[in-house]
Structures are given as C-alpha cells and as structure tokens.
Amino acid sequence: MAPPPPPLAALRPAPLSLPSLPCPAAARSGARGCAVAFSLQTNVRLLKPNRRSRRSRHPYYDHDEDDDEEAEEFEFEEEDDDDEGDDDLSGLEHPGVLYSNNSRAPIKKAGRETSALKQSWEGRQPKTRDRYDTPEKIDALHARSKASISATGLVNIEVESKNKSTSLSVFQKLQEEYDFDDKWLPLIDYLCTFGLKESHFINIYERHMACFQINQGSAEERLEFLLSVGVKSKDMKRILVRQPQILEYTLSNLKYHVSFLVSLGVPSARIGQIISAAPSFFSYNVEQSLKPTIRYLIEEVGIEESDVGKVVQLSPQILVQRIDSAWKSRFLFLSKELRAPKDNIVKMVTKHPQLLHYSIEDGILPRINFLRSIGMRDTDILKVLTSLTQVLSLSLEENLKPKYLYLVNDLKNDVQSLTKYPMYLSLSLEQRIRPRHRFLVSLKKAPKGPFPLSSFVPTDERFCKQWAGTSLEKYHTFRQRMLLNGFAEKTGRKILTSSQ
Q1: What is the pLDDT of residues 2-45, one digit of tens each?
Q2: How far is it, in rounded angstroms, from Cα 39 to Cα 208?
Q3: Is the pLDDT of residue 217 over 70?
Q4: 277 touches 54 (CB < 8 A)
C-alpha cells in the first residue's frame, strides 16, 4: 500500500488571517499551490441564453426552457482547460489524492466471486447517523427537529430492505465488470439511497475515483450537513454526479463555505438552492477566490454591497465564474452596440446577473437585432433591457416573435407600447395575455382601439375586479376551457365535457 500523502500544510505557505470571518481550517488553507495542475471545478461557462435561475417559477411568466425534473442520466461537462488552480485543497480529507481527469478507461474484470460479498452484506448492522456539534454562526441552519428527522431522514424497514437489495445488485455489477474494491461497498450502499445508479458510479469512477476512498460514516456526516442547510434530497444525486469531490471536503470546510454565504446576506432558506445550483463553489478557496470575486463585483462592476446577496441568489454561478473577463467583454459590447452608460449596465447585472453568462454572439446580439427589426430604436432597446434584462433569456421563435405578432395583430398595439410596458414580453402568452384579452372580448368589455397592456399587469383577482367586473371563478373557468381547447387543437384529441 502506498504511504499516506503528506499534509498539505507542508506544501503551502500560511494564509493571511481575516478576523471578520474566522476559518475553521485556517491552519491548512493557503495561497494557490503552483504545483497543482488539476481542476476540481465544473465548467460554468453558459453559452446559451436560455439558462436561467431556478428562482422564478410562476406559470404566468415565460422562460425559455421547461423546468423539467432531472433526467436519470446526466450529461457531464468537460473541465475548463483555461481555469487556473483556484481549488481549495485544504478542505479535502486526503488533499494529496487528486484525480487527474482520469484518461484511462475503467479496468474491466473478467469475473469475480461475489458469494462472500453477499454473505458479508447480509450480516451488516443497520447504519447509524453520526451527530455533530453546530457552529454558532449556522445554528439556525443546522437545527433539525426530531419530528423532521423522523419524517424525512428515516425510512421504514420495507423501504430499507428494498434499498439494500438495489445497492447490492448495483455493487455486484460494478465489481464484476470494473475495478471496484470491496471496501467501497458501505459507501455505495449509502449513496444508493439518493438514487445513484450503476452508470452514475461508473462516471464518478472515471472522473474522480479518489472519492470512493472516503468511509461511509464521513460521507454521511457531510451529506447530512448539506441536507440540514436546505439541500433537497432529490437534488443530492445531481450534486454528487456533477461534483463527487464534495464527499472529500471536511465538515469544517463545508461549514466555512456556508458561513461565507450567510455573511453575504443570503437567507438561510436559499442556501440549499445555491449549493444545488453551483456545488463546485465548495472547491474554491474562500480567501483566495470567493472573497476577491465579491470585491470585484462591488469595486469594479459597481454593484451595491447591499445587493450582493441578491445577485448571488439570482445566479450562484457568478461565484465560480471568471467574472473579470465576463464583465469586461459584455460591458464593452453593450457600451459600443447600444451606447449604454455604465449605470444602466450595472442595473442590468444587478437585476439579471445571468447576463454575464450569456454568449454575446449567440444570445445577446440576436435579441438586440430582433428588437431593432420590429422598429425599436437603440434608445428604446436600452430602456427595455435596463427595465427587463430577462428579455435576453427568452427564446426568439417560441417567445418573443409570437408575442410581438399577437401585440400588433390581435391587441392592435404598436411597438412603442413595449417601451412603456416591457413587462409584456415576460408574461406568458398562453397563460395570461391571450386568456385575459379573449375574456374581456367575450364580455364585450374590451376597449376600442389598442388593447391596454396595463390590464395584463395586476393579479387575477385585481384584473377581475378592476377590468372584467366579474368573479375570479368565472375567469378561471373560462381560461381553463380555453387552454383545454387549445391543447385539443394542437394534439388532435377530443376534450370530454361533464355533460358527455
């Protein structure tokens, strides 16, 4: 057996102290090591403008991409070859054991006896959950009631038995075909409870085999902590597949990163969503990478310090992006293309920080050109984008163009009305715009001339009271019938009514 890796502290200089946020692992953290040529980060470059935050889920607002549940199989992003070594190796349990983007294929085994494995499996005692003390800074995040643990953390005997059978079957296949060690069985058993399958373990093995060296107790302690700060159990599979290194980070490292988010003003209810959206954030050193990113947003970009927490919530990827090049390129483009003042661009980034992820050539420019093509002047486009930067994330063919055609053909409005009511472009054509317009027409309450776009802004209840003068139930019944008829026309299916 190879000798254990040397402690990382021997390879690194001591870090600078920061009294404002004490680091539990300060003795082991330090400046970037020049000798480290590996990257733990997932590629966070988003080239398409239809990648959006998971923040808004209201059906009346349009998004460019359906919010489907995660597929059973994941597409794995290639590592960014241009990334520098920003990895916080001090948080690894075995910092000297790094994967090297494993170029070799998994070694298939000709065949192995598994009878002894099965016997030892059946003799295993039920696993117990480790307990640990909570730091004062994140007491509120980590506190969990016995009732909650009983409801979500423990499974009944029947389900546990089924999980054991499933994980045993998975491990037997992995051991027969690949170089999987018997010692990995308890860890794989535990990870199977989050829905990981054979293909997921193979992919993790190819990308980061070292994580299987973590014992089951340590892995459970770390993942239980993530669950306690708001990560949903259904998201854990995606996190583990995207960032398997998370199993190697010590509990103190995880807590320190969570404390960093809290220090930015991120509410406890949003911590889990940020981790799920950007799990690679744990691999960045807080002092050497994350804090400088925040300082750049404040000092160079010009985002107000009080808005930083909101920006991180809207786009967690901003923490792990090369923010300097992303900001400079988009600032120069908008300044030249629209003559946009810096104040306007800062407002755009504050409201919709995903702007920094969008491709200029494939995302931003085509939407600006579309607005020009329908008769908008650059000054009007700047007003619309400053007010509703989300327009840059909407699909041209499935969203912007249909809404424009409905605006001029059905609502009898001109393009200049969008300057006054840019929110029109963010509303759902099927769920809000068309139903409200058709409802007022059916009641003969639609005003003559251009249809008022302001009628699309209020809630359904206020719309019924202020514009339709009827009950909310009547409007909802009308809209439901209209949606069903539209569905029938698209699919060719017959809609059965209660009278049939």
Answers
A1: 454 444 334 333 433 333 444 444 443 444 343 333 333 333 33
A2: 11
A3: yes
A4: yes
Give the closest residue to 471 by CA, choosing from 460, 480, 456, 481. Answer: 460
Instruction: In whole angstroms, give the CA distance from residue 492 to residue 490.
Output: 6
Helix axes 233-242, 268-277, angle to 10 degrees: 40
Identify the CA nearest to 23 among candidates 122, 103, 129, 135. Answer: 135
Q: Quote the percentage of the chain above a pLDDT of 90.
A: 53
Residue among 42, 14, 40 at smallest CA distance from 29: 14
Write out the two tokens for 329: 């390129």
Judging by beta carbons within 10 Å of its beta carbon (0-12, 13-18, 19+), is residue 424 exposed, middle or buried?
buried
Q: Which amino acid is at 302?
A: G
Give me the amino acid identity at 146: K
Size (the chain), residues? 500
Query: Nearest CA to 343 among 304, 290, 295, 287?
Result: 304
d(C-alpha 227, C-alpha 331), whole Å = 38
Q: Annotate 135-172 with b (16+ C-beta within 10 A) or e (fewer).
A: bebbeebbeeeeeeeeeeeeeeeeeeeeebeebbebbb
Cα 456 to Cα 182, 267, 405, 423, 461: the distances in Å are 62, 31, 17, 9, 12
Report whether 239 contacts 278 (CB < 8 A): no
Q: How far apart are CA 282 and CA 88, in angstroms?
A: 8
Q: What number of CA atoms fall less than 13 Å from residue 432's CA on the CB side?
A: 22
3-state secondary structure the chain: CCCCCCCHHHCCCCCCCCCCCCCCCCCCCCCCCCCCCCCCCCCCCCCCCCCCCCCCCCCCECCCCCCCCCCCCCCCCCCCCCCCCCECHHHECCCCCCCCCCCCCCCCCCCCCCHHHHHHHHCCCCCCCCCCCCCHHHHHHHCCCHHHHHHHHCCCHHHHHHHHHHHHHHHHHHHHHCCCCHHHHHHHHHHHCCCCCHHHHHHHHHHHHHHHHCCHHHHHHHHHHHHHCCCCHHHHHHHHHHCHHHHCECHHHHHHHHHHHHHCCCCHHHHHHHHHHCHHHHHECHHHHHHHHHHHHHHHHCCCHHHHHHHHHHCHHHHHCCHHHHHHHHHHHHHHHCCCCHHHHHHHHHHCHHHHHCCHHHHHHHHHHHHHHCCCCHHHHHHHHHHCHHHHHCCHHHHHHHHHHHHHHCCCCCCCHHHHCHHHHHECHHHHHHHHHHHHHHCCCCCCCCCCHHHHCCCHHHHHHHHHCCCHHHHHHHHHHHHHHHHHHHHCCCCCCCCC
Other beta carbons less than 10 A from residue 317's beta carbon: 22
pTM above 0.70, yes or no: no
Beta bridge partners of 87: 284
pLDDT value for 201: 85
